[in-house]
Recover the amino acids of this structure.
């Protein structure tokens, strides 16, 4: 008659068997709980980026995230990271870790300002300063804490562009001497303002000081000085009366010999544009150059 030999179950095998049974029960329990609760992963949309500030030196972009909670219970926004890239070059980035609770079947808008200094970006990317506009891309990673399924990371991206403002250029084009004698000269000063921007510019005020040699020739203010079309230029002529007794004989001799005159043009211009935030912008200028007098 055959006999069956019994082998004792060792303690290590019992422990392993118990662990596997518990793991199967926990996995089944969690899956059942998720099914019953109908747990869904939240959605995150990079709602918008808009100009929050723009100047000749930099820009501030307001980044807004929309977090949607489709679940019948509250979840918690743990924070998010963001990167700003221009021409595939990362130029700015940061993070926000302020927790926010989002109610059941509710949503939340979260905004963060991103600042950009043009001078620093121009050093990083060759040729960017000559462009009329800049395209950029915002990449965000949002962290949402959901009951049962835990911390979830959700990525989103948005690409947009903004106009790149540039300072208008002002220069002396000519000094026309209409008449002169030993006492002084009647002169017409020619100025040119060039607009390098892809949008129109209204120069609502112009305050300038012109020095020739070491002598100040004129200091004056002008309202509604010029309206400049996109990529356009405007010329203006200013009549001057130069007194040689006040300035000495150097200017008289230079005009008589028709020698080139060294000048310095300093002042401020106030600009208005159709671009948001670029209104009533005060721009200082300081330019030196050389001009040949046109002596009649």
């Amino acid at each position: 008659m055959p006999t069956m030999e019994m082998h004792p179950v060792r303690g290590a095998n019992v422990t392993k068997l118990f662990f596997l049974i518990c793991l199967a029960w926990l996995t089944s329990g969690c899956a059942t709980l998720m099914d019953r609760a109908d747990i869904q992963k939240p959605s995150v949309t990079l709602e918008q980026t808009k100009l929050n500030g723009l100047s000749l030196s930099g820009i501030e972009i307001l980044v807004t995230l929309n977090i949607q909670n489709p679940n019948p219970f509250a979840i918690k926004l743990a924070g998010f990271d963001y990167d700003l890239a221009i021409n595939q070059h990362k130029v700015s980035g940061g993070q926000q870790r302020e927790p926010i609770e989002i109610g059941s079947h509710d949503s939340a808008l979260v905004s963060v300002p991103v600042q950009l200094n043009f001078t620093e970006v121009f050093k990083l990317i060759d040729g960017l300063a000559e462009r009329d506009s800049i395209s950029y891309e915002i990449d965000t990673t949002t962290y949402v804490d959901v009951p049962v399924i835990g911390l979830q990371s959700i990525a989103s991206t948005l690409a947009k562009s903004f106009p790149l403002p540039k300072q208008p250029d002002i220069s002396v084009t000519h000094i026309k001497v209409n008449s002169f004698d030993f006492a002084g000269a009647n002169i017409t000063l020619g100025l040119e303002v060039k607009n390098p921007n892809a949008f129109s510019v209204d120069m609502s005020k112009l305050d300038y000081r012109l020095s020739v040699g070491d002598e100040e020739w004129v200091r004056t203010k002008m309202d509604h000085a010029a309206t400049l079309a996109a990529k356009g230029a405007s010329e203006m002529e200013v009549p001057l009366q130069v007194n040689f007794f006040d300035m000495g004989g150097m200017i008289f001799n230079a005009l008589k010999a028709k020698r080139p005159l060294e000048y310095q043009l300093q002042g401020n211009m106030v600009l208005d544009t159709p671009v948001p935030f670029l209104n009533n912008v005060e721009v200082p200028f300081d330019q030196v150059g050389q001009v040949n007098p046109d002596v009649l």
Observations:
- The mean pLDDT is 85.
- The first strand starts at residue 43 and ends at 54.
- The radius of gyration is 36 Å.
